[in-house]
Predict the structure of Conserved oligomeric Golgi complex subunit 8.
Amino acid sequence: MDGPEFTSMDLQMLLKEPTRLENSIAALQSQFDESMARNYDFFIKTCIDASTITDDLESCTKNIGDLSSDLAKANNLCKDLCLLANSTRESMAKISSAFLKQSEISDILIAPQLMRTCRISNLYDEALQVYNILEQFTRQHPNTTSLKSTLEEANNVKNEVTQSLLNTFSGDLKLEDAISNVNLLRTAKVHSEAEIRLAFINGRRMALHQKIKHISKEDPNKYMQELTNNFRSALYEISTTYKAILASEDAEDDMTLHLVIQKECEKYCKALKRSLEKVTKVDDAKEMVLNAFTFASSFGRLGFDFSPLIENCFYSSKWAE
Protein backbone atom coordinates (compact mmCIF):
# COMPACT_ATOMS: atom_id res chain seq x y z
CA MET A 1 0.00 0.00 0.00
CA ASP A 2 1.18 3.45 -0.72
CA GLY A 3 2.35 5.54 2.26
CA PRO A 4 1.56 9.17 2.94
CA GLU A 5 2.92 11.67 0.47
CA PHE A 6 5.62 14.10 1.66
CA THR A 7 5.43 17.80 1.02
CA SER A 8 8.23 20.35 0.95
CA MET A 9 7.21 21.53 4.41
CA ASP A 10 7.42 17.99 5.75
CA LEU A 11 10.88 17.68 4.26
CA GLN A 12 12.03 20.82 6.07
CA MET A 13 10.67 19.50 9.31
CA LEU A 14 12.37 16.12 8.84
CA LEU A 15 15.71 17.73 8.23
CA LYS A 16 15.40 19.37 11.62
CA GLU A 17 14.50 16.05 13.26
CA PRO A 18 17.03 13.22 12.36
CA THR A 19 15.11 10.41 13.95
CA ARG A 20 11.98 11.26 12.12
CA LEU A 21 14.07 11.56 8.93
CA GLU A 22 15.41 8.05 9.29
CA ASN A 23 11.94 6.70 9.79
CA SER A 24 10.76 8.48 6.68
CA ILE A 25 13.68 7.15 4.63
CA ALA A 26 12.91 3.65 5.84
CA ALA A 27 9.28 4.12 4.88
CA LEU A 28 10.32 5.32 1.42
CA GLN A 29 12.70 2.35 1.04
CA SER A 30 9.89 -0.01 1.93
CA GLN A 31 7.58 1.67 -0.59
CA PHE A 32 10.27 1.43 -3.26
CA ASP A 33 10.87 -2.27 -2.60
CA GLU A 34 7.15 -3.01 -2.78
CA SER A 35 6.87 -1.06 -6.02
CA MET A 36 9.85 -2.88 -7.57
CA ALA A 37 8.45 -6.27 -6.55
CA ARG A 38 5.07 -5.36 -7.99
CA ASN A 39 6.62 -4.01 -11.22
CA TYR A 40 8.82 -7.11 -11.56
CA ASP A 41 5.79 -9.37 -11.32
CA PHE A 42 4.05 -7.23 -13.92
CA PHE A 43 7.15 -7.40 -16.18
CA ILE A 44 7.31 -11.19 -15.91
CA LYS A 45 3.60 -11.45 -16.69
CA THR A 46 4.06 -9.07 -19.62
CA CYS A 47 6.90 -11.19 -21.02
CA ILE A 48 4.79 -14.32 -20.70
CA ASP A 49 1.90 -12.55 -22.40
CA ALA A 50 4.27 -11.28 -25.15
CA SER A 51 5.53 -14.82 -25.78
CA THR A 52 1.97 -16.04 -25.98
CA ILE A 53 1.10 -13.23 -28.37
CA THR A 54 4.14 -14.10 -30.51
CA ASP A 55 3.04 -17.72 -30.69
CA ASP A 56 -0.46 -16.58 -31.52
CA LEU A 57 0.90 -14.26 -34.21
CA GLU A 58 2.91 -17.10 -35.79
CA SER A 59 -0.15 -19.33 -35.71
CA CYS A 60 -2.22 -16.51 -37.14
CA THR A 61 0.35 -15.92 -39.87
CA LYS A 62 0.28 -19.61 -40.75
CA ASN A 63 -3.50 -19.55 -40.78
CA ILE A 64 -3.45 -16.48 -43.00
CA GLY A 65 -1.04 -18.27 -45.38
CA ASP A 66 -3.28 -21.32 -45.46
CA LEU A 67 -6.28 -19.08 -46.02
CA SER A 68 -4.51 -17.30 -48.90
CA SER A 69 -3.68 -20.65 -50.49
CA ASP A 70 -7.27 -21.76 -50.05
CA LEU A 71 -8.47 -18.48 -51.55
CA ALA A 72 -6.17 -18.99 -54.58
CA LYS A 73 -7.51 -22.51 -55.02
CA ALA A 74 -11.04 -21.22 -54.66
CA ASN A 75 -10.30 -18.51 -57.23
CA ASN A 76 -8.97 -21.10 -59.71
CA LEU A 77 -11.98 -23.28 -59.02
CA CYS A 78 -14.26 -20.33 -59.72
CA LYS A 79 -12.44 -19.71 -63.00
CA ASP A 80 -12.83 -23.36 -63.97
CA LEU A 81 -16.51 -23.22 -63.07
CA CYS A 82 -16.93 -20.07 -65.17
CA LEU A 83 -15.24 -21.75 -68.15
CA LEU A 84 -17.41 -24.81 -67.67
CA ALA A 85 -20.48 -22.61 -67.47
CA ASN A 86 -19.52 -20.82 -70.70
CA SER A 87 -18.84 -24.14 -72.41
CA THR A 88 -22.16 -25.48 -71.20
CA ARG A 89 -23.89 -22.32 -72.41
CA GLU A 90 -22.29 -22.69 -75.85
CA SER A 91 -23.22 -26.37 -75.98
CA MET A 92 -26.79 -25.56 -75.04
CA ALA A 93 -26.87 -22.87 -77.73
CA LYS A 94 -25.61 -25.38 -80.30
CA ILE A 95 -28.15 -27.94 -79.15
CA SER A 96 -30.92 -25.35 -79.33
CA SER A 97 -29.74 -24.30 -82.78
CA ALA A 98 -29.60 -27.94 -83.85
CA PHE A 99 -33.19 -28.45 -82.72
CA LEU A 100 -34.25 -25.34 -84.60
CA LYS A 101 -32.39 -26.53 -87.70
CA GLN A 102 -33.41 -30.17 -87.32
CA SER A 103 -35.97 -30.18 -90.10
CA GLU A 104 -33.69 -28.20 -92.40
CA ILE A 105 -30.75 -30.53 -91.71
CA SER A 106 -32.95 -33.59 -92.22
CA ASP A 107 -33.89 -32.26 -95.65
CA ILE A 108 -30.32 -31.39 -96.58
CA LEU A 109 -29.01 -34.84 -95.63
CA ILE A 110 -30.88 -36.41 -98.56
CA ALA A 111 -29.06 -34.13 -101.03
CA PRO A 112 -26.90 -36.95 -102.49
CA GLN A 113 -30.02 -39.02 -103.15
CA LEU A 114 -31.69 -36.06 -104.86
CA MET A 115 -28.58 -35.50 -106.97
CA ARG A 116 -28.57 -39.14 -108.09
CA THR A 117 -32.23 -38.88 -109.06
CA CYS A 118 -31.50 -35.73 -111.06
CA ARG A 119 -28.53 -37.39 -112.78
CA ILE A 120 -30.57 -40.43 -113.79
CA SER A 121 -33.24 -38.07 -115.16
CA ASN A 122 -30.58 -36.07 -117.08
CA LEU A 123 -31.34 -33.02 -114.92
CA TYR A 124 -27.69 -32.09 -114.56
CA ASP A 125 -28.25 -28.41 -113.80
CA GLU A 126 -30.63 -29.26 -110.94
CA ALA A 127 -28.16 -31.79 -109.53
CA LEU A 128 -25.39 -29.19 -109.38
CA GLN A 129 -27.76 -26.66 -107.81
CA VAL A 130 -28.54 -29.14 -105.02
CA TYR A 131 -24.80 -29.61 -104.46
CA ASN A 132 -24.23 -25.85 -104.25
CA ILE A 133 -27.00 -25.51 -101.65
CA LEU A 134 -25.49 -28.33 -99.59
CA GLU A 135 -21.99 -26.85 -99.84
CA GLN A 136 -23.19 -23.41 -98.73
CA PHE A 137 -25.19 -24.89 -95.83
CA THR A 138 -22.17 -26.92 -94.71
CA ARG A 139 -20.00 -23.78 -94.65
CA GLN A 140 -22.58 -22.15 -92.37
CA HIS A 141 -22.41 -25.14 -89.98
CA PRO A 142 -18.75 -26.25 -90.15
CA ASN A 143 -18.84 -28.31 -86.94
CA THR A 144 -21.69 -30.61 -87.95
CA THR A 145 -20.11 -33.99 -88.67
CA SER A 146 -23.14 -35.41 -90.48
CA LEU A 147 -23.07 -32.51 -92.94
CA LYS A 148 -19.38 -33.09 -93.69
CA SER A 149 -19.94 -36.76 -94.51
CA THR A 150 -22.99 -35.85 -96.58
CA LEU A 151 -20.96 -33.29 -98.52
CA GLU A 152 -18.28 -35.91 -99.25
CA GLU A 153 -20.93 -38.27 -100.61
CA ALA A 154 -22.48 -35.45 -102.63
CA ASN A 155 -19.06 -34.59 -104.05
CA ASN A 156 -18.77 -38.16 -105.35
CA VAL A 157 -22.18 -37.81 -106.96
CA LYS A 158 -21.07 -34.49 -108.48
CA ASN A 159 -18.16 -36.31 -110.11
CA GLU A 160 -20.66 -38.80 -111.53
CA VAL A 161 -22.75 -35.91 -112.84
CA THR A 162 -19.78 -34.31 -114.58
CA GLN A 163 -18.84 -37.67 -116.10
CA SER A 164 -22.38 -37.97 -117.44
CA LEU A 165 -22.00 -34.49 -118.93
CA LEU A 166 -18.76 -35.55 -120.62
CA ASN A 167 -20.48 -38.67 -121.97
CA THR A 168 -23.06 -36.50 -123.75
CA PHE A 169 -20.32 -35.39 -126.14
CA SER A 170 -20.22 -38.86 -127.69
CA GLY A 171 -23.97 -39.03 -128.41
CA ASP A 172 -26.50 -37.02 -130.38
CA LEU A 173 -25.70 -33.45 -129.46
CA LYS A 174 -27.39 -30.20 -130.44
CA LEU A 175 -25.52 -26.92 -130.32
CA GLU A 176 -27.63 -25.53 -127.46
CA ASP A 177 -27.04 -28.72 -125.46
CA ALA A 178 -23.31 -28.53 -126.11
CA ILE A 179 -23.22 -24.93 -124.88
CA SER A 180 -25.30 -25.77 -121.80
CA ASN A 181 -23.25 -28.84 -120.88
CA VAL A 182 -19.92 -27.06 -121.30
CA ASN A 183 -21.12 -24.24 -119.05
CA LEU A 184 -22.26 -26.77 -116.43
CA LEU A 185 -18.87 -28.46 -116.53
CA ARG A 186 -17.19 -25.12 -116.01
CA THR A 187 -19.51 -24.34 -113.10
CA ALA A 188 -18.82 -27.72 -111.46
CA LYS A 189 -15.06 -26.99 -111.46
CA VAL A 190 -14.18 -30.68 -111.49
CA HIS A 191 -12.29 -30.66 -114.80
CA SER A 192 -9.92 -28.07 -116.21
CA GLU A 193 -10.69 -26.14 -119.37
CA ALA A 194 -8.15 -28.21 -121.31
CA GLU A 195 -9.77 -31.44 -120.11
CA ILE A 196 -13.21 -30.22 -121.18
CA ARG A 197 -11.93 -29.26 -124.65
CA LEU A 198 -10.23 -32.61 -125.14
CA ALA A 199 -13.29 -34.51 -123.88
CA PHE A 200 -15.49 -32.63 -126.34
CA ILE A 201 -13.26 -33.38 -129.33
CA ASN A 202 -12.81 -37.04 -128.44
CA GLY A 203 -16.52 -37.43 -127.72
CA ARG A 204 -17.53 -36.03 -131.11
CA ARG A 205 -14.94 -38.20 -132.85
CA MET A 206 -16.35 -41.24 -131.05
CA ALA A 207 -19.86 -40.29 -132.19
CA LEU A 208 -18.61 -40.01 -135.78
CA HIS A 209 -16.97 -43.42 -135.76
CA GLN A 210 -20.04 -45.00 -134.17
CA LYS A 211 -22.04 -43.82 -137.19
CA ILE A 212 -19.63 -44.77 -139.95
CA LYS A 213 -18.99 -48.28 -138.66
CA HIS A 214 -22.59 -49.17 -139.50
CA ILE A 215 -22.32 -48.03 -143.14
CA SER A 216 -22.58 -50.92 -145.57
CA LYS A 217 -19.41 -51.54 -147.62
CA GLU A 218 -21.01 -53.71 -150.29
CA ASP A 219 -21.28 -50.85 -152.77
CA PRO A 220 -18.07 -48.72 -152.75
CA ASN A 221 -19.85 -45.74 -154.34
CA LYS A 222 -22.68 -45.63 -151.80
CA TYR A 223 -20.24 -46.30 -149.01
CA MET A 224 -18.05 -43.32 -149.96
CA GLN A 225 -21.06 -41.11 -150.48
CA GLU A 226 -22.38 -41.82 -146.98
CA LEU A 227 -18.89 -41.70 -145.51
CA THR A 228 -18.28 -38.28 -147.06
CA ASN A 229 -21.59 -36.94 -145.77
CA ASN A 230 -20.86 -38.18 -142.24
CA PHE A 231 -17.29 -36.84 -142.18
CA ARG A 232 -18.37 -33.49 -143.61
CA SER A 233 -21.15 -33.06 -141.07
CA ALA A 234 -19.13 -34.26 -138.07
CA LEU A 235 -15.90 -32.38 -138.76
CA TYR A 236 -17.80 -29.20 -139.57
CA GLU A 237 -19.68 -29.50 -136.27
CA ILE A 238 -16.50 -30.20 -134.29
CA SER A 239 -14.71 -27.24 -135.82
CA THR A 240 -17.49 -24.64 -135.55
CA THR A 241 -18.71 -25.68 -132.09
CA TYR A 242 -15.19 -25.87 -130.72
CA LYS A 243 -14.32 -22.42 -132.01
CA ALA A 244 -17.61 -20.99 -130.72
CA ILE A 245 -17.57 -22.21 -127.12
CA LEU A 246 -14.18 -23.76 -126.35
CA ALA A 247 -11.44 -22.02 -128.29
CA SER A 248 -8.98 -19.78 -126.45
CA GLU A 249 -6.18 -17.44 -127.44
CA ASP A 250 -3.65 -20.17 -126.67
CA ALA A 251 -1.75 -21.23 -129.80
CA GLU A 252 -1.50 -24.81 -128.53
CA ASP A 253 -5.28 -24.88 -128.25
CA ASP A 254 -5.70 -24.12 -131.99
CA MET A 255 -2.99 -26.65 -132.81
CA THR A 256 -4.86 -29.35 -130.89
CA LEU A 257 -7.98 -28.84 -133.00
CA HIS A 258 -5.92 -28.69 -136.19
CA LEU A 259 -4.12 -31.97 -135.43
CA VAL A 260 -7.37 -33.74 -134.57
CA ILE A 261 -9.03 -32.61 -137.81
CA GLN A 262 -5.93 -33.60 -139.79
CA LYS A 263 -5.97 -37.08 -138.24
CA GLU A 264 -9.64 -37.58 -139.12
CA CYS A 265 -9.03 -36.36 -142.68
CA GLU A 266 -6.24 -38.91 -143.01
CA LYS A 267 -8.67 -41.65 -141.94
CA TYR A 268 -11.14 -40.42 -144.54
CA CYS A 269 -8.50 -40.46 -147.27
CA LYS A 270 -7.46 -44.02 -146.36
CA ALA A 271 -11.08 -45.10 -146.77
CA LEU A 272 -11.17 -43.24 -150.11
CA LYS A 273 -8.06 -45.03 -151.29
CA ARG A 274 -9.50 -48.45 -150.40
CA SER A 275 -12.74 -47.64 -152.18
CA LEU A 276 -10.91 -46.47 -155.32
CA GLU A 277 -9.27 -49.87 -155.48
CA LYS A 278 -12.64 -51.61 -155.24
CA VAL A 279 -14.55 -49.77 -158.01
CA THR A 280 -14.31 -51.15 -161.53
CA LYS A 281 -15.49 -48.18 -163.59
CA VAL A 282 -13.54 -45.03 -164.23
CA ASP A 283 -16.68 -42.89 -163.95
CA ASP A 284 -17.29 -44.23 -160.44
CA ALA A 285 -13.70 -43.41 -159.52
CA LYS A 286 -14.06 -39.88 -160.91
CA GLU A 287 -17.28 -39.36 -158.95
CA MET A 288 -15.60 -40.47 -155.72
CA VAL A 289 -12.66 -38.15 -156.22
CA LEU A 290 -14.90 -35.25 -157.25
CA ASN A 291 -17.06 -35.62 -154.12
CA ALA A 292 -13.94 -35.82 -151.99
CA PHE A 293 -12.52 -32.63 -153.54
CA THR A 294 -15.85 -30.86 -152.99
CA PHE A 295 -15.72 -31.88 -149.34
CA ALA A 296 -12.10 -30.72 -149.01
CA SER A 297 -12.85 -27.42 -150.74
CA SER A 298 -15.80 -26.55 -148.48
CA PHE A 299 -13.89 -27.61 -145.40
CA GLY A 300 -10.88 -25.58 -146.51
CA ARG A 301 -12.91 -22.41 -145.88
CA LEU A 302 -12.66 -23.23 -142.18
CA GLY A 303 -8.88 -23.35 -142.40
CA PHE A 304 -8.43 -27.11 -142.90
CA ASP A 305 -7.39 -27.88 -146.48
CA PHE A 306 -6.65 -31.55 -147.08
CA SER A 307 -6.85 -31.48 -150.89
CA PRO A 308 -3.20 -32.65 -151.18
CA LEU A 309 -4.15 -35.85 -149.35
CA ILE A 310 -6.94 -36.52 -151.86
CA GLU A 311 -4.60 -35.91 -154.79
CA ASN A 312 -2.13 -38.36 -153.27
CA CYS A 313 -4.90 -40.97 -152.91
CA PHE A 314 -5.84 -40.63 -156.57
CA TYR A 315 -2.32 -40.64 -157.97
CA SER A 316 -1.36 -43.64 -155.85
CA SER A 317 -4.41 -45.62 -157.00
CA LYS A 318 -4.80 -47.85 -160.04
CA TRP A 319 -6.75 -45.10 -161.84
CA ALA A 320 -3.73 -42.84 -162.14
CA GLU A 321 -2.16 -45.11 -164.72
User: Anything to note?
Assistant: The mean pLDDT is 83. The radius of gyration is 56 Å. Residues 18-100 form the longest helix (83 residues). The CA atoms of residues 67 and 143 lie 44 Å apart.
